[in-house]
């Protein structure tokens, strides 16, 4: 995806771009690039791509994620082939998460550990509640 702003601007709260919008934008990118597939297939690709972006943005290893996928599916080779194209998405998602954590630490003056727990809970809520059609 391409944005008119940088991850650094998101971290510094110079632009208002959050987790929900990122997920909607990523889903739209999948829909545009995979328009020959049905909605269920597009959703499955989005889910795995988002999980990969989140995994790497939170410190996981790209290749470790791929190794955990079903070797019989097309996902390991597909995700391996678009690794470089996902880097901006991973960086933007990392910036969004960092901003969410910083807001809690700076504005609510809570310990980092608590902020991490709150952002994890918020993330889980967004992922389960975001309607992507």
Low-confidence segments, given as residue ranges, are none
- Structural class computed from helices and strand pairing: mainly alpha
Q: What percent of the residues sit in helical stretches (DSSP H or I)?
A: over 70%
Report the mean per-residue pLDDT as an integer. 93
Radius of gyration: 15 Å
Shape: globular
Q: How many domains is the backbone divided into?
A: 1
Report strand %. Answer: under 5%
What does this structure look like?
The protein is mainly alpha-helical and 133 residues long. The chain has one domain (7-129). Helix content is 72%, strand content 0%. It is built from 7 helices and no strands. Helix 2 (19-33) packs across helix 3 (39-57) and helix 3 packs across helix 6 (83-108). The two termini are 18 Å apart. The model has no long low-confidence stretch (mean pLDDT 93).
Secondary structure layout plus pairing:
Layout: H1 7-11, H2 19-33, H3 39-57, H4 62-67, H5 75-81, H6 83-108, H7 112-129
Helix pairs in contact: 2-3, 3-6, 6-7
List its salient traits.
mainly alpha, globular
Task: Give a brief outline of the structure.
The chain has seven helices and no strands.
């Amino acid at each position: 995806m391409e944005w008119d702003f940088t991850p650094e601007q998101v971290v510094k709260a110079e632009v208002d771009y959050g987790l929900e919008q990122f997920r909607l934008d990523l889903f739209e990118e999948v829909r545009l690039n995979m328009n020959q597939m049905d909605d269920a297939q597009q959703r499955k690709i989005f889910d795995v791509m988002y999980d990969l972006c989140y995994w790497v943005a939170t410190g996981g290893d790209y290749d470790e994620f791929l190794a955990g996928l079903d070797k019989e599916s097309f996902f390991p080779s597909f995700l391996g082939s678009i690794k470089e194209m996902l880097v901006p998405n991973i960086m933007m998602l990392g910036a969004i998460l960092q901003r969410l954590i910083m807001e809690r630490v700076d504005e609510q003056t809570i310990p980092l550990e608590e902020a991490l727990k709150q952002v994890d809970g918020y993330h889980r809520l967004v992922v389960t509640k975001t309607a992507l059609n």
